[in-house]
Amino acid sequence: MELLLQILWSSIGVLIAVAYGLLTGGIVRKLFARIQGRVGPPVYQGFIDLGKNFFVRDNISHGPMFYFGPALRTAGGVGIFLFIPAIVGWAPGENFSFAGDLLLVMYFMFFGSLGMALGGSAGGHPHTPIGAGRGLSQMTAFEVPFILAVIALVADTGSFSVHDLTLAQAGGFLEWNLLTHPFAAAAAFIAMLGMNGYAPFNVVGAPNEIPVGPMTEYQGGFIATLGTGRAIFAIAKMILFMDLFLGGATSILEAFIKVFVIYMWSVAVAAVFPRYRVDQSMRFFLGWPALIGVVAVLLALF
Amino acid sequence: MTIENPHVEKETQLWVGPQHPGVTGNMAIQVWLTGDTIQRGITHVGYLHRGFEKLMERRKFIQSFPIVCRICVPEPDTNEYLLAASIEELGGITIPEKAVWLRTLVLEMSRLASLVQQIGGGAGATGLGAVPNWTYTLRDYILDSFEELTGGRVYHMYMVYGGVRRDLPVGFAERMEATLRKIEERLPYIDKVTFQSSVWRERTQGVGLTDPAWVKEMGISGPAIRAMGFARDVRRDFPYLAYPELDFSVITSTGGDIYARMEIRRHEVVESIKIIRQVLQKMPKDGPVAAPIPNVFTWRIPTGQTYVRAEASRGEMGYYTVTDGSDKVRRVHVRGASYVHGFAMAERMFEGLNIADLHPTLVSIPTCPPEMER
Amino acid sequence: MGVEEKGKVPLLPSGVPVGSKPHATDSTLFAQGRPKPLSLDESVAFIKNWFRAQSLNVMAYGTGCGSIELGPLGTSRFDMERFGITGGPTPRQSSVLIISGYLSVKTLKRVIRSYEQMPNPRWVVALGSCTINGGMYWDSYSTIKILDQYLPVDVYVNGCMPRPEALIAGFKDLMDMIKRGEANGYIEYQNNLDWYRANQRKVIKDWNLPEYSW
Q1: Hey, are the CB atoms on B55 and C63 less than 8 Å from each other?
Q2: I need a surface site. Which of A134, A147, B357, C99 has the fewest CB within 10 A?
Q3: Minimal C-alpha gap between C153 and chain B (Å)
Q4: A81: closest CA among A26, A16, A28?
Q5: Which of A274, A278, A279 sits opposite B197 (nearest CB)?
Q6: Which chains, if any, share at least 3 CB pairs under 8 A with chain B?
Q7: Per residue in C123-181, pLDDT tens?
């Protein structure tokens, strides 16, 4: 019974996360538009795009593997969301958090990109392997500072549970890992720039180099599924960062605000930067951010 | 046409264009990739071919005007001037001084609009969304001035044989000055996110290089050759219209990469603004704007040939015109700067280029597909 | 049905001359009966069409001169994103194809290929007089003259080139037509594929497109 109830609460949580992700996406588009001197689309444009993509009549498939891209992408986002506590200390918001969830979530981060590489390649367009190759190599690079930051936190707290890591920061913002572990936070937040895929690290779907990269052959319902997956993936990642560095959230409103603030960090960077080439992007992540991560680990160990 | 490729099993063949957000217009580039690196590239054109040179042979002189401005869409006035100047030279018409200055003004305004647009294009090519938005708006302000002066937004057809169509409207100089000031105010912002940005510099410096040894004999012109240290400018080397009386400098750089070409363009915007201010200041206040010409329906021009050239934002443009005593031209050859840039220069630059740098290189040269194909 | 002889006004498959719309007769000006509530099918169609109209993706293909005005249209002066119109980078993810002016035969081949790769529903917006009757290139050897014989055009925007305001007005018209369920060029194309194919094959000499490429 308790499990069924938890499934119900978590399903509602997924829906809320999708809606909030789409809304945040609309706000981001509006924000970019304002910086560029435009009015921009209405903030609810993301929902309209989603509906429109579902109502496209034709869906051209390129074999069974083609379906794996959107499916795995969405599964990755939902997976991250389901296994970390969105709201700490409130049973419906705890989701399916368990002792080793941090390790599982790290795996889910790779999941979506691997799925896109797998599914997109079934389309056979030359942009797909180039985009997937770029995405996977950049991901390998930004995982280094991120994992070093996580190792630093885990070494200090002694637990692989996001729940425990969040509880360890209880007691005011001075206890947040953002302030107590500044090096780990710096490494992780720089890695987040690459994770979110905004400029200067939007090498995967670089619009005027390899337009939309691995998604070149997807259309209609596939794009709608991908959009849903992207919305929840973005929110789930922000929740993870909130739990790890900003002390988690104790109410829905607090979660909304903290997620939005963390999201805006990568948007603020993206607005004024051009795009790196993928080799430059990898060199960037394996340079200073990785070094900061190493320093964070050393500080945590000694 | 089949293209022989001996390494077909080792390379990925990729078409960039014609349907691609990253080409400068309706053109295509066929590249062979090894990993991320381009081994060879071939420029394919013909998608915009309309046969202007042939169409002009069937039209009377005055009828050619509406079609020549379509040869290069972002900068149509150079074509109008070149056709007008060549026919006037062959027909023995001298234009009044006021028309000389007005033509200089329009040519320089279209150069400025085109340069501003190219800066935005170069920044947008590297994924910087804000700069194209700003520069397209700045270009639009210049187009507003064009609309006020000529009645047309993109295509003006302002020049006619013997001069121009009409005088400046009242208060045009002040409004033009306001537009110029808007551009000057925006330039520091553009500098900040492009030329001073470490990411953009890393992305553009040392990319898109070519050997300076062969560019002179290949006929490369404009910012592409000035970025390699050759101070070549038709406005100074072969002065036309009112340019000898104007004070401007030819900007050169020695980098030869995308950064150098874009930097030259940015400084040329300042020079162009300076020229427009001088023109508005030194222009005679009164006088006729057009000399009388014969009846255009029966106008016949004796046998002759001439080559007239002018500096466009992309480089040297020229019209080689032949007349044979009839009421139509016998032959017109349009020498567009983009032709040599898009074929000779771009195809050599593609070799060894990263696929991500293809579009910035193409934009920075620059190429204008309708001009390559006419 | 069939390709018309030279010199005559070309007919659409339905027998109506190109460019003419059926005139409103007197009976259409008055109500024919009491208003009825929408049936389930009609309501679903209405919702679908509303979503489709509010989110248009313009394919990134500048086929002619008119594409120079798509720059100002997309950027901060005229900002088409206000109306939910965004760019579609690939044919698969686009719903609107803009034929921006004259179309050379070489481009027509690529345009047909791109158009057929777009998923239904899809619409064609044609700019300028060049797409209606050839415009100033009426005697050019390399351009097509009447676009409607090769692709079903939903909205024409006049002017050379059309100002961005005119384009926005054209898009508004297209949105209204989609919402009313009248922008059915893509259905006409599928139903009369033979007629369109015959016309296309007449101008494209090196025909090597697949018969059914979407």
Answers
A1: no
A2: A147
A3: 19
A4: A16
A5: A274
A6: A, C
A7: 999 988 888 888 888 888 888 888 888 889 999 988 888 888 999 999 999 999 998 88
User: Quick check: pTM over 0.95?
Assistant: no
Instruction: Flag whether the ipTM exceeds 0.90.
Output: no
| 8 Å CB contact of C81 and A40 | yes
Cβ-defined contact of A277 to B357 (cutoff 8 Å): yes
Contacts for C30 with CB less than 8 Å, ≥ 6 apart: none
Report the distance separating Cα C17 and Cα B57, nearest Å: 34
Q: Where are the beta strands (DSSP E) in chain B?
A: 12-16, 28-34, 37-44, 159-160, 163-164, 304-311, 316-323, 329-335
Identify the residue among B45, B48, B71 best suited for mutation to test binding to C, counting C beta carbons within 10 A and taking the highest.
B48
Tokens found for residue C111: 């345009």
What is d(CA A204, CA A201) in angstroms, rounded to the nearest whole number? 8
Using CB atoms within 10 Å of the CB of residue C40, give its burial: 0 to 12 exposed, 13 to 18 middle, 19+ buried: exposed
CB B60 within 8 A of CB B328: yes
- pLDDT of B112 reads 92
Mean pLDDT is highest, among A202-211, B141-150, B217-226, C184-193, for B141-150
Name the token pair of A105. Answer: 């979530």
Find the closest chain C residue to A210 by CA distance.
Answer: C89
The DSSP symbol for B3 reads: -
Burial class (CB in 10 A: 0-12, 13-18, 19+), B372: buried
| 3-class DSSP state of B362 | helix
Host H or E run for residue B338: helix B337-340
Mean per-residue pLDDT over chain B, rounded: 87
C61–B73 C-beta distance less than 8 A: no
Where in chain C are the domains?
Answer: 40-203
Distance CA B341, CA B350 (A): 12
Cα-based distances in Å from B269 to B135, B235, B272, C135:
12, 15, 5, 35
Q: Which of C55, C76, C93 sits opposite A48 (nearest CB)?
A: C55
Who wins on pLDDT, A20 or A173? A20
Average pLDDT estimate for B125-151 = 89
**What is the CATH architecture assignment of C40-203?**
3-Layer(aba) Sandwich (3.40)
Burial code of C169-189, b = ≥16 C-beta within 10 A, e = fewer? ebbebbbebbeeeebbbbebb
Determine the Cα–Cα distance for residues B350 and B113; give it in Å rounded to an integer. 28
Q: In this structure, which topology does domain B12-373 adopt according to CATH?
A: Cytochrome-c3 Hydrogenase; chain B (1.10.645)
The confidence score (pLDDT) of residue C1 equals 41
Q: Do A51 and C51 touch (CB under 8 A)?
A: yes
In this predicted structure, the answer to whether residue A58 has a pLDDT above a threshold of 60 is yes
Question: First and final CA of chain A: distance in angstroms?
Answer: 46
Does residue A209 sit in helix, strand or coil? Answer: coil
CA distance linking residue A34 with residue B3, whole number of Å: 47
CA-nearest residue to B12 within chain A is A126
Are B202 and B227 a contacting pair, CB within 8 Å? no
CB contacts < 8 A, A to C, total 73
Q: Which residues, 6 or more positions from B342, have their beta carbon under 8 angstroms from its beta carbon?
A: B27, B43, B45, B365, B367, B369, B372
Task: Show me where the domains of chain B are located.
Answer: 12-373
Tell me what the mean pLDDT of segment C87-92 comes to.
85
| Residue B10 three-state SS | coil
- Domain coordinates in residue numbering, chain A: 2-301
> Which pLDDT tens digit goes with each residue over C22-73?
555 555 566 666 767 778 888 888 888 899 898 898 988 888 888 888 888 8
* CA–CA distance, A58 with C120 (Å, rounded to integer): 6
Task: Convert the pLDDT of each residue in A179-198 to its tens digit.
Answer: 888 898 999 999 988 888 88
Digit-coded pLDDT (tens) for C91-126:
888 889 999 888 888 888 889 888 888 888 889 999
